[in-house]
Design goal:
The complex is a heterodimer of chains A (229) and B (358). By secondary structure, chain A is α+β, with helices and mostly antiparallel strands. Chain A contains five helices and ten strands; from the N terminus they run E-H-E-E-E-E-E-H-E-H-E-H-H-E-E. In chain A, a hairpin with a 2-residue loop joins strand 2 and strand 3. In chain A, helix 2 packs across helix 5. In chain B, a hairpin with a 4-residue loop joins strand 2 and strand 3. With 358 residues, chain B is an alpha+beta fold. Chain B has twelve helices and 17 strands. Helix content of chain B is 28%, strand content 25%. Classes of the chains: A alpha+beta (229), B alpha+beta (358).
Chain lengths: 229, 358
């Protein structure tokens, strides 16, 4: 497939994106763009680009850190993961909500993702640097056969109850969570990518973004990051 | 004057054992443990659960504890590291029927680590590793012969320690605590398997052996420094949290009746309850009075704990008596068992436990 063309979404196209994203698609705010990949009249994929994540609505991520445990008495030397909810990435530039038309071939999805990324990064880098000077992009986490998130079920639902949402995170503990306490299915979902999101992940990788130390608290998916420069 | 009363009066003025001393109305006596109590302690240790680390079946270990205790009872100067062990003597059977102890300060070798149960967080209750009880005095090593579990003997064995602490308050903390074994056996502990073992891969028996006193420096290096939401514990660990080993039900019930707070702390290894309270708030010390010993017919009355005010010569018993405003009348044999003469001060507290005392 040849590279699709890129343009800004029109107001009447938001409803289409909302279906693809299975959520409400709002019009772009100031310093935001909603880019579409298209071939002629056919809209193939979309991506929201944010110059700098605002303070509101409040966004949260889980930082994956490490705790080293050394106890010679037990011949113990190990490194355990700890998860800390925070707002580390507020202020960074974000590439969010990549969505594509159903039934699009994987190669076409990858081509759309690549073209959208190129256009988004060019627009971001034509403007002032965000603070922190980073570009971040979430990748959807692993799903089970029913479309649920094993990560949320094993951690978020236990801590916050109910369905995964930024609002539910209000009940998330302020302290670090020890990964060693989580069940194996929950642990293995940390940073795991949903197969359906693989083209998006691969495009991010090709554009120079890499999985960092943050994951999405709602599904455990990795946040890919790159320096702004 | 009847011959019996004359005999009692004659006995009242002598502490020298008489060839035909009458049996005291008190059947049980608490006294400091001695080196020759080791066989009894070994017998008790054989019946103690894995989690009762202060009473494990090791002759050298128990002999060292007896020596430590004898040194504490003999010491004029203290540094808070003392251990006081008491044995319960069945005067009728002339046997040692129980043991109980006091560690002057829980954190004598460093912070005493346990888990604080925190409530009120939006995500529900959590367990926070803490050293809150390091300055507390610990009640330890409680064991009584099962055949005596339903009578006054365990009441004396447990509560008389509080009278001893009240009498020698300068040697102890103002807060008293006691850790009661949780659900654990030689096969392990569900709480440990779902909590501590996740961070160190060491089985329960091994960790008890290494950190029995709960002051080992490796505890804070191993367990999470931040509060752990209870919601993240596996179901078996969560079910074991705050639950008692069957053998601990009696000593726990006695301390609950005393007024100990049972809800705020648990043991970091087996999840068993860790009770604590300020001494002044506990029933027995708060209701105790110092009365002069009098010799005579005790008369009918309620059960009372009676202890002398000595240190190395500490004795306590439980009798039915009717204390007056300034004195308590006891028969000569009981005064002799308490090693006091008429006029000596006795610390007396009513014993009104809600279960049978017969």
């Amino acid at each position: 497939m040849s590279a699709p063309a890129i343009r800004d979404a029109r107001a009447d196209e938001l409803a289409v994106l909302a279906v693809w994203l299975r959520t409400a698609a709002r019009p772009p705010a100031q310093d935001e763009r909603l880019l579409l990949a298209h071939e002629g009249a056919a809209v193939l994929a979309g991506l929201r680009v944010v110059r700098s994540l605002p303070l509101l609505p409040l966004r949260r991520w889980l930082h994956l850190g490490w705790r080293v445990r050394v106890a010679p008495e037990l011949q113990l030397q190990r490194r355990d993961g700890v998860l800390q909810l925070g707002q580390d990435l507020v202020g960074a530039a974000e590439l969010a909500g990549f969505a594509h038309a159903p039934g699009l071939a994987p190669g076409a999805v990858r081509a759309c993702a690549q073209s959208l990324l190129e256009a988004a990064l060019a627009w971001l880098r034509s403007g002032p640097a965000p603070d922190p000077a980073r570009i971040v992009a979430g990748v959807a986490g692993a799903r089970d056969a029913q479309g649920g998130s094993p990560f949320w079920r094993g951690l978020g639902a236990r801590l916050c109850g109910g369905a995964a949402s930024q609002q539910a995170l209000e009940r998330w503990p302020r302290q670090e969570i020890e990964v060693a306490l989580l069940e194996p299915a929950t642990r293995s979902a940390i940073g795991a990518v949903d197969p359906a999101a693989e083209p998006w992940r691969a495009a991010l990788h090709a554009a120079g973004l890499r999985a960092g130390q943050h994951i999405d608290p709602l599904d455990g998916g990795p946040v890919y990051e790159a320096p702004f420069a | 004057m009847s011959g019996r009363l004359a005999q009692r009066r004659a006995h009242c003025h002598s502490l020298v054992p008489m060839p035909h001393s009458p049996v005291p109305s008190a059947r049980f006596l608490l006294r400091p443990a001695r080196a020759d109590d080791l066989p009894a302690l070994l017998r008790f240790a054989a019946a103690a659960p894995v989690g009762l680390t202060t009473l494990h079946q090791d002759s050298a270990y128990l002999a060292a504890r007896l020596a430590r205790s004898q040194a504490a009872f003999a010491a004029d100067l203290t540094d808070g590291s003392e251990l006081y062990l008491f044995v319960l003597v069945d005067l009728q059977a002339d046997t040692v029927a129980g043991v109980a102890g006091i560690e002057a300060h829980a954190g004598r070798e460093g912070p005493y680590w346990c888990l604080r149960r925190e409530a009120g967080a939006p995500s529900g209750p959590a367990l926070q590793l803490c050293a809150d009880l390091s300055d507390a005095t610990l009640l330890v090593s409680f064991h009584v012969e099962p055949a005596l579990a339903k009578g006054v003997a365990p009441q004396l064995l447990s509560r008389a320690r509080l009278l001893f602490i009240a009498q020698h308050a300068e040697r102890f903390g103002t807060r008293i605590a006691s850790a009661h074994p949780g659900i654990a056996d030689a096969g392990g502990s569900a709480f440990w398997d779902g909590f501590g073992r996740r961070f160190c891969e060491v089985d329960y028996a091994t960790i008890e052996q290494l950190c029995g006193g709960r002051s080992a420096p490796l505890i804070p290096r191993m367990l999470p420094p931040a509060a752990v939401p209870q919601a993240l514990l596996a179901a078996p660990a969560s079910a074991a949290l705050g639950r008692l080993h069957a053998i601990a039900e009696l000593p726990h019930a006695i301390l609950v009746d005393e007024g100990f707070d049972t809800d705020t702390h648990v043991d970091a290894f087996d999840g068993g309850p860790l009770v604590h309270e300020r001494l002044a708030m506990l029933k027995t010390p708060a209701s105790a009075r110092v009365l002069a010993a009098r010799c005579g017919e005790p008369g009918d009355g309620g059960w009372h704990l009676v202890a002398n005010c000595a240190l190395g010569g500490f004795r306590a018993t439980v009798v039915q008596a009717r204390p007056g405003a300034s004195g308590i009348t006891l028969d000569a044999a009981t005064l002799r068992a308490l090693a006091v003469a008429p006029g000596a001060p006795l610390r007396v507290a009513p014993l009104d436990a809600p279960w049978g005392l017969a």
